[in-house]
C-alpha cells in the first residue's frame, strides 16, 4: 500500500507528502506535477544507478504524486493526514502492480519530462541557486556540485566553476577551501569521468532490465524532436549540449559509449 511504501522510503519525513515534492499545501496541480518531476529526477535510476534506497524513494514519489494529483485522494489526505488506501476495485498495489507503475513512471520522466524540464532548468536562476547551494554544502568541492545538481555531466564542470567564481566575486558565497583542490584538477576530473562512465553503463543495464530500450514509441518521437531542433540548440549549447547528449543516449540504434571528454565542447558560462 502507498502508506507503507512512503514510510519505508522516507521514514518520518513521509508524514508530509507535500514536503516530499517541495511544494506547499496550497499548491496548484501544475506545481505538484513540477515538484514531482523535480524530485523524481533527483532520485531517477540514471542519477543513482545501483542505489536501492534511491529506487525505493523514486517509487514512493510515484505513490505521492498519485495521491496528490487526484482531487479526491488529495482531499482525503488533507482531511486525515494519512495516505488514502487503494480502492479495492482498482486492485491492490502489490509487487507486480508497483513494478508496472515504476516502469511507467521511469518512462514518463525519461520521455516526457527531462527534455522540457532541461530547457527551462539548464542555465536558469534555479540551476544557479542549486549550484551555489551544492557548492556551500560540499565545502567548495566541485565534484559534490556535479553529484548534486540535476541533469549535469562532467562537461558542465567549467560552467559551474564560472558560476561559483562569479558568485564569489559578487560576495554571494565565500571562497571555500575545497574549491581550489577540485577545480582544474585533471586527476580529479579524470576520476569523476571514470565514475560517470561506470554509472552510465550501470544505468543502461537498469534501463534494459525495465524494457526501456531506445526504440519506437515516445522515445522515437523524442529522438525526432531532438533531431529537428539540434542545429539551433547546438549553436547556443555546443555539440556537447544537453539535447545532443539526449540524442546520443536515446536516439542511438545500438548502445554507444559516451562521447569522450576530449570530443566534448565546453558549454559557455552563463552570464549573470
Automatic annotation (TrEMBL):
Q: Name one GO molecular function term.
A: heat shock protein binding
Q: Name one GO cellular component term.
A: nucleus
- Judging by the UniProt lineage, the source's domain of life is Eukaryota
Q: Where is the J domain?
A: 16-81
- A Pfam entry, by short name: DnaJ
| UniProt cross-references to InterPro entries, sorted A to Z | DnaJ_domain (IPR001623), HTH_DNAJC9 (IPR056453), J_dom_sf (IPR036869), J_domain-containing_protein (IPR052594)
- Please identify the protein, giving its name as recorded: J domain-containing protein
Amino acid at each position: 500500500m502507498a502508506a507503507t511504501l512512503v514510510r519505508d522510503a522516507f521514514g518520518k519525513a513521509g508524514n508530509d507528502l507535500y514536503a516530499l515534492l517541495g511544494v506547499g499545501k496550497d499548491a496548484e496541480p501544475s506545481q505538484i506535477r513540477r515538484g514531482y518531476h523535480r524530485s523524481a529526477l533527483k532520485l531517477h535510476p540514471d542519477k543513482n544507478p545501483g542505489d536501492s534506497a534511491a529506487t525505493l524513494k523514486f517509487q514512493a514519489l510515484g505513490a505521492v504524486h498519485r495521491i496528490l494529483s487526484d482531487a479526491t485522494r488529495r482531499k482525503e489526505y488533507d482531511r486525515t493526514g494519512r495516505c488514502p488506501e487503494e480502492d479495492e476495485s482498482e486492485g491492490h498495489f502489490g509487487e507486480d502492480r508497483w513494478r508496472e507503475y515504476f516502469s511507467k513512471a521511469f518512462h514518463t520522466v525519461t520521455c516526457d519530462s527531462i527534455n522540457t524540464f532541461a530547457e527551462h532548468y539548464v542555465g536558469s536562476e534555479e540551476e544557479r541557486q542549486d549550484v551555489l547551494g551544492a557548492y556551500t554544502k560540499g565545502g567548495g568541492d566541485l565534484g559534490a556540485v556535479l553529484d548534486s545538481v540535476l541533469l549535469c555531466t562532467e562537461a558542465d564542470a567549467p560552467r559551474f566553476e564560472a558560476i561559483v567564481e562569479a558568485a564569489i566575486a559578487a560576495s554571494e558565497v565565500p571562497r571555500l577551501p575545497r574549491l581550489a583542490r577540485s577545480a582544474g584538477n585533471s586527476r580529479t576530473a579524470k576520476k569523476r569521468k571514470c565514475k560517470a562512465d561506470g554509472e552510465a553503463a550501470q544505468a543502461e543495464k537498469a534501463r534494459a532490465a525495465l524494457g526501456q530500450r531506445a526504440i519506437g514509441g515516445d522515445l522515437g518521437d523524442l529522438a525526432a524532436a531532438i533531431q529537428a531542433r539540434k542545429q539551433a540548440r547546438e549553436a547556443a549549447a555546443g555539440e556537447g549540449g544537453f539535447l545532443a547528449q539526449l540524442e546520443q543516449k536515446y536516439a542511438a540504434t545500438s548502445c554507444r559509449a559516451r562521447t569522450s571528454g576530449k570530443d566534448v565542447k565546453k558549454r559557455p558560462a552563463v552570464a549573470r
